[in-house]
Amino acid sequence: MADNFLQPEDDTGIPISNPSEQMPGLAGYVKKKFEDSENGRRSHEQRWLQAYKNFRGIYDSTTQYRDSERSKVFVKITKTKVLAAYGQIIDILFANKKFPLVVEATPMPEGIEEFAHMKTPIDEASGSSDPYGFKGDGRQLSPGAMEASQPHKLGSYDKEFPDMLAAGPAKMGEPQLKPAQKMALRMEKCIHDQLLDTNATSVFRQAIFEASLLGTGIVKGPFNFYKRVNKWERDEEGQRNYSPYEKIVPRIEYVSVWDFHPDPSATSIEDCEYVIQRHRMNRQQLRGLIKRPYFDAEAIEECLAKGANYEDKYYEDTIREDETEPYYQENRFEVLEYWGVIDKKYADEVGLEGSNDMSELDQAQVNVWVCGNMVIRCVMNPFTPARIPFQAFPFEVNPYQLWGVGVAENMEDAQLLMNGHVRMAIDNLALAGNLVFDVDEASLVPGQNMDIFPGKIFRRQSGVTGTAINGLKFPNTAGENIQMYQIARQLADEETGIPSIMHGQTGVTGTGRTAAGLSMLMGSAGLAMKTVIKNIDDSLLKPIGEAYFQWNMQFNEDVDDIEGDLEIKPRGVAAVMQKEVRSQRLTSLLQTVANPMLAPFIKIPNLMRELAIAQDIDPDSLVNDQNEAQIYAEMLKGMMPDAQQGNGGGANPNSQQQGMAQPNGVPQQPSGTNNQGNGNGTIGVGATPTAGEAGFTGNAPQPQE
Q1: Contact at 8 Å (CB) between 185 and 228?
Q2: Is a pLDDT exceeding 60 seen at residue 653?
Q3: Contact by Cβ (8 Å): 487, 500
Q4: CA 606/CA 610 separation, integer angstroms
């Protein structure tokens, strides 16, 4: 950027661009929006820089030290708290190796029937004689509706079971289907498979870490991604041949907050008029864009011919921990990716498809890529409905701001206090642990070396009396400083909602020393973390799940039969409850289900799955679904007679009668035994063995013949 684009510095000391001097056309429009976003988030960048420095243990260049200070130690408690929060969130969300997303049918699904049942001759007869049905048959029309307006919406079941299913609840004794629920489950499995195929867990981890540190995490997508699938096939001769193929899958990406430039006036992604992502590319990466759809090859070649245009921002030197002088990246290009609206004049400039049908006041939702002063890509927003493909979620909600607040910012004051008191304690210990000497130089021979070491000899002036060298001892005040340090550390616990016990602190005092107090402490921490997980549920998991759903409905040809009114529900908050407590409650409920009167009212398969999840066990690997459970039950039922027959086949015919209760309640004893045994059992005591008898363990071993 030329120097004439700069004007006097703002209150942060950073030059800001002059909006009145802009390059013309669409490229200038995108540049202008980028500069507006930069100026709008300047104060937030200062917060992020300070948070990063506290995390890394780096003192700010503006930190003032007293001349007497020698220690420059930095206590990295911020790093400990950030990693503790990050680890706890990851453990809550991904402990059972499943994404905390479920797809459910709405309470009153539209577009697909909630219930269906097999047609019977009674259905057909009643339908022919009474087209409006009778009360309770599930085929009654709503008030004011006509029969022609009530199509059966059974999803894929219309294709799988033609002329066999009827919409509505089943009559007593008939098999029951839930098309809406089964379609929701099918979509849920599809989304989970897509997330696993593209390693989405790693993307979530990166975004959650940055949210814990800086307050906001960014996830981009999903976008079409061609995944290479390795496949081996045997030919006619039995030889294995490698025949890979590519399939289109949705993929999400992590975007750093440093490269994310939203509409400065927006308070959420839904409120953003535009979002810009700043890319830093080398020549190979920029040239690689030519192979991607709808990129202008000639414009890219012209950008490459003009040379690199990337310049480091003021905060990038700090992030790289290189504060010497601005470092301008060689052979790097700045590429701006714009998602938002443009006016008709800009659409006409680049010949955007459909711009002729726009009025002068219309705006188009587009995706524009700009490098330097060149537009290298401009297309209509490919998503239906049009949306900005970014999700920004806060660690802690900052009211009236898109940007959130992280752990590092919450404990900034506590970190300063801990650093200050630890430095004072160390400096004091250095003084208190060493002698400070008071020297009367007039009593000593001039010109002597004043260094003191064991065996040192000082020469005194002749005739001078008194002590020439006196050792002074300074008092030890480190205890008071360490006490203030402990207070500051407790303050950090309260400011972040993360008690020290959660990241390995052992010296817990106060109520935390008792089991009840520790439980209350952990419960309070879980309550604070529940709010964070709720923010992730609302601002990340649910929007990402809905974006995957829309992508599948728009681009995935394999889910044509997944229709209906489905709802994405995040399950992060449900996992906040302590696993031990949840496991105990589920086990207690399972014991209650043992009552045959209550068992029909409990969904046993769901209960078993939740119990497995509470114990960090993958439910898909151990818990059968209803169909599998029925098959296994039939198998076990078939094995029971064989087992009973096997147990009694070689037994004594009289063994069935032995041990049975007699009329007086005394069990019958086996022959050859007496009833003088000990205990309350029903097994008789045999005769005492005699030495020399066969089987007596004390017999001497007999020689082998």
Answers
A1: no
A2: no
A3: no
A4: 6
Check residues 44 and 240 and name the one with the higher pLDDT: 44
Residue with tokens 């004794």: 173
Cβ-based burial of 176 (10 A; exposed 0-12, middle 13-18, buried ≥19): exposed
Residue whose pair of structure tokens reads 């000391």 in the numeric block: 13
- In angstroms, the CA 585 to CA 603 distance is 15
* pLDDT the model gives residue 262: 96
**Stretch 325-345: mean pLDDT, rounded?**
82
Is the link from the previous residue into 385 a cis peptide, with omega within 30 of 0?
A: yes
Helix 42-56 × helix 412-432 angle, to 10°: 40
Euclidean distance between CA atoms 501 and 523, whole angstroms: 12
Token code pair at residue 228: 């290479």
What is the residue-wise DSSP string for 204-224? HHHHHHHHHHHSEEEEEEEEE
Residue 436: is its pLDDT beyond 70? yes
DSSP-assigned beta bridge partners for residue 165: 118
Q: What is the Cβ-side half-sphere exposure of residue 8, based on CA atoms within 13 angstroms?
A: 1
* Alpha carbons 215 and 86: distance in angstroms, whole number: 12
The Cβ of residue 615 has, within 10 Å, a number of other Cβ atoms equal to 15
At how many degrees (to 10) do helices 25-40 and 42-56 cross? 60
Strand 216-229, strand 390-394: pairing: antiparallel
User: pLDDT tens digits for 73-102?
Assistant: 899 999 999 999 999 899 888 876 778 888
Residue whose pair of structure tokens reads 């119990």 in the numeric block: 611
* Domain spans in the chain, listed from the N-terminal domain onward: 115-132+151-177, 577-641
DSSP classification of residue 194: H
Scanning the structure block, which residue is given the tokens 């009114």?
A: 565
Q: How far apart are CA 612 and CA 586, in angstroms?
A: 10
How far, in Å, CA of 358 to CA of 370, rounded? 23
